[in-house]
Amino acid sequence: MYQASRGGKTVVPLEAKGRFLGSSNTPKFSKIVSWKYSHMSARLVREDLQMNHSRLLSTKLVQSVSAHVEEGAEAICPHNSCFYEVVDHDIPTECEQYSS
Predict the structure, then answer these.
(1) Predicted pLDDT at 48
(2) For residue range 53-96, what is the model confidence (pLDDT) as tens digits?
(3) Where is pLDDT greater, at 1 or 43?
(4) Which of 23, 25, 65, 87 has a CA positioned 20 to 30 A from the CA of residue 13?
(5) Rounded to whole angstroms, what are the CA distances from 71 to 9, 29, 36, 85?
(6) pTM here?
(7) 3-state SS of the chain?
(8) Do residues 63 and 30 touch, judged by C-beta distance below 8 A?
């Protein structure tokens, strides 16, 4: 944290360039929470973080962090603008059976 000797505006470089998502969530923490939330309910994410990482969170914070991650992803690749090729899994394959 920096402030000129004459006073005035206080500058906090970490806040300016720290890439915080929301008010105080680091990218690493946001990635952890959003990944867990994509695999389990917000209540289970909250319990997991409390039990395994000693982080007390509310269910609302889990949802909020994931919403910020979604907004960031949406800014990079707006909805319906990123396409991928679907692989055809119905292509017949040949198998050989070997016996010993």
Answers:
(1) 94
(2) 898 989 998 898 888 777 777 766 766 566 666 666 676 666 66
(3) 43
(4) 65
(5) 30, 16, 17, 24
(6) 0.55
(7) CEECCCCCCEECHHHHHCCCECCCECHHHHHHHHHHHHHCCHHHHHHHHHHHHCCCCCHHHHHHHHHHHHHHHHHHCCCCCCCCCCCCCCCCCCCCCCCC
(8) no
